[in-house]
């Protein structure tokens, strides 16, 4: 099973990915967690260009870099893990590119879809959890962390377009997405994820 977590800045993806990995392991699964951009040596180097390079890569250049990091991650890490029966959890995946470079930057969604397809060989998550939050609140949470980066620093209108992009994609494909209010308690969020996984398992058995 391949599960991705998506959301705008400060939505709490990372903490919930770590929790779900632990929960799945406690329930007898082998789990691999990863993140985008990153997750491989090549990908982590690309991540630092994307998030910390003062040379301001253009939207198109950023798109190519995100896809390059993704291609390496899928080939080197995700596909081999899935092939050996490991549950893979990723903090961001292809939907982030559609949301940020597509809905946010205004690059063609059709082109991004094609590039996602090339980078992943058509790999699609079984479940995508969207932790939805008002960008104002999310960015305020981020300000308190040491991880502030060039994308966080974009204007509020950009982050709002990204958020609306995620919500539009989730509404268009409800069977794959689970949308959760990221301002709810961790306990509520986790119960909903567990309930969705149980449903998914029952559907597969049936
Ligand atoms: P994060 O993983 O700490 O959230 O940081 C990654 C940043 O990169 C975040 O601002 C979202 C952005 N991003 C894109 O713009 N496009 C992408 O395809 C991915 C994976 C991330």
Layout of SSEs?
Elements (H helix, E strand, L loop, with lengths): L1 E5 L6 H14 L4 E5 L5 H12 L6 H25 L3 E5 L2 H11 L4 H12 L6 E6 L2 H9 L12 H17 L4 E5 L4 H20 L1
Parallel strand pairs: 1-3, 1-4, 2-3, 4-5
Provide a concise account of the structure shown:
The chain has 206 residues and is of the alpha/beta class.
Shape from CA axes?
globular
CATH superfamily: P-loop containing nucleotide triphosphate hydrolases
Query: What is the total domain count?
Result: 1
Distance between the termini: 17 Å
The major pleated sheet works out as: 5 strands, parallel
Radius of gyration using CA atoms only: 16 Å
How many DSSP helices?
Answer: 8
The string of secondary-structure elements, in order, is: EHEHHEHHEHHEH
This entry's quaternary arrangement is: single chain
Q: Which architecture name does CATH use? A: 3-Layer(aba) Sandwich
Q: How much β-strand is present in the residues?
A: 5-15%
Q: Output the CATH topology.
A: Rossmann fold
What small molecules does the structure contain?
thymidine-5'-phosphate
The assigned structural class equals: alpha/beta
Counting DSSP E segments of at least 2 residues, the number of strands comes to 5
CATH secondary-structure class? Alpha Beta
Report helical residue fraction.
Answer: 55-70%
Residue ranges: pLDDT <50 for 5 or more in a row? none
The largest sheet has its strands arranged as 2-3-1-4-5
């Amino acid at each position: 099973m391949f599960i991705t977590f998506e959301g705008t800045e400060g939505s709490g993806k990372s903490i919930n990915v770590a929790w779900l990995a632990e929960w799945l392991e406690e329930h007898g699964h082998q789990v691999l967690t990863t993140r985008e951009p990153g997750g491989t040596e090549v990908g982590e180097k690309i991540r630092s260009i994307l998030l910390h390079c003062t040379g301001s890569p253009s939207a198109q250049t950023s798109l190519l870099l995100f896809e390059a990091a993704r291609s390496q991650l899928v080939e080197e890490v995700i596909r081999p893990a899935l092939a050996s029966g490991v549950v893979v959890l990723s903090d961001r995946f292809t939907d982030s590119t559609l949301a940020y470079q597509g809905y946010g930057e205004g690059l063609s969604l059709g082109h991004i879809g094609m590039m996602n397809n090339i980078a992943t060989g058509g790999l699609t998550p079984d479940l995508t959890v969207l932790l939805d939050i008002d960008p104002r609140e999310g960015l305020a949470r981020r300000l308190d962390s040491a991880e502030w980066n060039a994308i966080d620093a974009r204007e509020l209108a950009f982050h709002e377009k990204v958020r609306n992009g995620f919500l539009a994609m989730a509404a268009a494909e409800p069977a794959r997405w689970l949308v959760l209010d990221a301002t709810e308690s961790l306990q509520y969020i986790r119960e909903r994820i567990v309930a969705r996984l149980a449903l998914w398992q029952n559907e597969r058995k049936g």
